[in-house]
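Deviations from the work plan: none for this task. Representative record:
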Amino acid sequence: MKNYSNTYIFMFSVIMVVVVAVLLSFVAMQLKPLQDLNQEIERKSDILASVNMGSEGSDVKDYNAYIEQEFEKYINDSYVVDYSGEVVDRDAFEVTLNLKEQADKPAEERLYPVFVYTAQGGAHKYIVPVRGKGLWGPIWGYIAFEPDLNTIAGAIYDHQGETPGLGAEINTDWFEAYFNGKEIFNEEGEFVSVSVVKGQETDNNPHAVDAISGGTITSDGLDDMLEDYLEGYVNHFKEKRTEN
Amino acid sequence: MTEKEPLFSAKNLKLLREPLGSSNPITVQVLGICSALAITVQLKPAIVMTLSVIVVMSVSNVVISLMRKMIPPRIRIIVQLVVIATMVILVDEVLAAYAYDVSKQLSVFVGLIITNCIIMGRLEAFALANKPWPSFLDGLGNAFGYGLILIIVSFFRELFGSGTLLGYQVVPESFYEAGYANNGLFVLPPMALIVVGIIIWVQRAKNNDLVESN
């Protein structure tokens, strides 16, 4: 075995580290715009998916253009409210893109974006983003509410790194479908959220859905996320409900 | 240089073929068990993982083999780790830009690829001492050998655990009506070890050379 001097080893390491650093930063910078675009498109397509739109994407040639166009067409209004329900002058999509910043703050200091979907015939649905913690990393989602601001019209969840087949099942269609028609206010008009529960009958309970087998911590995280994040919209929703 | 060896000589082909059976990284060398356990709940992630490991393993093997005369032995493990980590990050970045869906599937497993003992093992045991072409074949062979077991295990786990394959329902509804139920144990990690154990058992029963003499 050849004997290498310490100087050689140091030089070798320095050169290796510099080469790798330059290569990786170059690639990262080159690809950043494309990756950001992918994320924006994903957010938009998730928002659309919560109201069952934008799903013909697999047949179109230019998927990105299709999503942009659908988003323009159906999401006619968006605004940002604070905890007390006051409208704040911020761009709702921009706040949604950086939702992590908001989720890290205490509930009272967060900004809460709302997207308004107008269906044919003029009925409005209200879509709100939520974000919380799963087992391995963040989980997030978009909840669409019927015009009564109580009944869930659709829910879309996603995650960064939940276990495939277990916690990662939160973003499957069958799990998301459990939320359709569930209600976040009880009959007295108090906020009760929708709980994710184990081993109970949930079909006739408007405030609960069945948890995922083997995905207990992710299910609990989802439960916390809904309670924590939707609570921030309660003031705004109540105000809006009395208006309607 | 001695006389030129054909690209696919018997010796080189052996490098490709052996890891699939008699020197399989998982069932014979028992390496890479951790990731085999984590990502075999469903078939699709297992296939994505296999493809990524094929890319990372063959390219890292070639890179290390090209550098083998320059690498100081005292820091060779760190050099190997840097090469693997760089490869994995590159693959991840490129996927995030050009195949966003796949990259989302993969994101969890990136860390697992870096720590996959098979890759380090092949760099250390083979690429450091061999020319680039045989190293490439060795990387390819071992990645296939690893992927083969991954796919077999995930096939059974998804089939019996969820009644689906690649997300499509394959166990007919009438079975469930007749009282058949998915086996929840297959979804949980211990079943991966049991399935791998069964594969090892079958393989050794067929090939007596693999059975330890004592």
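Residues 132-162 of chain B form the longest helix (31 residues).
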